[in-house]
UniProtKB/TrEMBL annotation:
Keywords: DNA-binding, Nucleus, Transcription, Transcription regulation. The keyword Magnesium does not apply. Residues 21-98 form the TFIIF beta subunit N-terminal domain. Residues 253-263 have a biased composition (Basic and acidic residues). One of its GO terms (biological process) is transcription initiation at RNA polymerase II promoter. Pfam families: TFIIF_beta, TFIIF_beta_N. This is General transcription factor IIF subunit 2. It is found in: Nucleus. GO terms for molecular function: DNA binding. TFIIF is a general transcription initiation factor that binds to RNA polymerase II and helps to recruit it to the initiation complex in collaboration with TFIIB. One of its GO terms (cellular component) is transcription factor TFIIF complex. The lineage of its organism: Eukaryota, Metazoa, Ecdysozoa, Arthropoda, Hexapoda. CDD domains: TFIIF_beta. Residues 186-249 form the TFIIF beta subunit HTH domain.
Length: 272
């Protein structure tokens, strides 16, 4: 889209006028690429030299310009490099570009078009010479890489920007709860059974939380006693509730109650 909101016309046809041109694909070291990215577009970045002798392969070298070397004087990098050449035979690689055209009278972009700049015929890898400058640069990079990412620093003043929380509220409450449960002493088993039987005389069903409050016993110890004298209901309507086993119940079942009522009625009729 242009600045005026109008869509830029895209020419979908690829311009192949330079398809027959051979180009080089050069791989350069990272330190050189960083220097080139910082360099302005109107300076010379280096000179390429190709020397060829009869019966030998061509020797290609690259020398960086003073303008590139002096971009950041504190960061010294090698000036001279050799380029190892390899021919591309098993791949078909190309270089493409796209440009947005404008007219002289109207600077608003009109058309976007793609071009093929050439076909890659050689790959070159730029390598520095192992001179003193290169060895010094590698030594510095190894030293920086060996430094730990985190360092301990002493603060002379209190930092008020942020204060990390040493412990969260829910963690403190959870530890206090576990500590309180751990301090609960185990009473004698018979005393716990008496408390349970007294409780079940009032209600038929209890959940484990209520029984812990009533007996004030550790939950693991209480469950051991409950398994001996109680049944745990797994189905509704009293799911997850504890109830005394039949042999420990003092209340009568509904069937027994009906039999007692029937017996009571028969005795009344006999008396009449």
């Amino acid at each position: 889209m242009s600045k005026d909101g109008e869509a830029i016309r895209v020419d979908k046809e690829l311009d192949l006028s330079n398809a027959g041109r051979g180009v080089w694909l050069v791989k350069v070291p990272k330190y050189m690429a960083n220097k080139w990215e910082k360099a302005p577009g109107n300076i010379e970045v280096g000179k390429l030299k190709i020397s060829k002798q009869v019966g030998q392969k061509a020797q290609v070298s690259l020398t960086l310009s003073d303008a590139v070397i002096n971009i950041d004087p504190s960061e010294e990098i090698p000036r001279d490099h050799r380029l190892d050449v390899s021919v591309v035979t098993k791949q078909t690689l190309g270089v493409f570009s796209h440009a947005i055209t404008t007219t002289r009278d109207d600077p608003v972009p009109e058309c976007e078009k793609q071009y093929m700049e050439g076909r890659i015929v050689q790959k070159l890898e730029c390598r520095p010479y192992a001179d003193n400058c290169y060895m010094k640069m590698k030594l510095e990079s190894i030293r920086k890489a060996s430094q730990p990412a985190r360092q301990v620093k002493s603060l002379e003043k209190i930092v008020h920007n942020y204060k990390p929380v040493s412990d969260h509220k829910h963690n403190i409450e959870d530890r206090e709860r576990k500590k309180a449960e751990g301090k609960k002493s185990r009473d004698d088993k018979n005393a716990v059974l008496d408390m349970l039987f007294n409780a079940f005389e009032k209600h038929q069903y209890y959940n484990i939380k209520d029984l812990v409050k009533i007996t004030r016993q550790p939950i693991s110890y209480l469950k051991e006693i409950l398994k001996e004298v109680c049944d745990y209901n797994m189905k509704n309507p009293h799911k997850n509730m504890w109830e005394l086993k039949k042999e420990y119940r003092h209340y009568k079942e509904d069937g027994d109650k009906k039999d007692d009522d029937a017996a009571k009625g028969n005795s009344d009729s006999d008396s009449d």
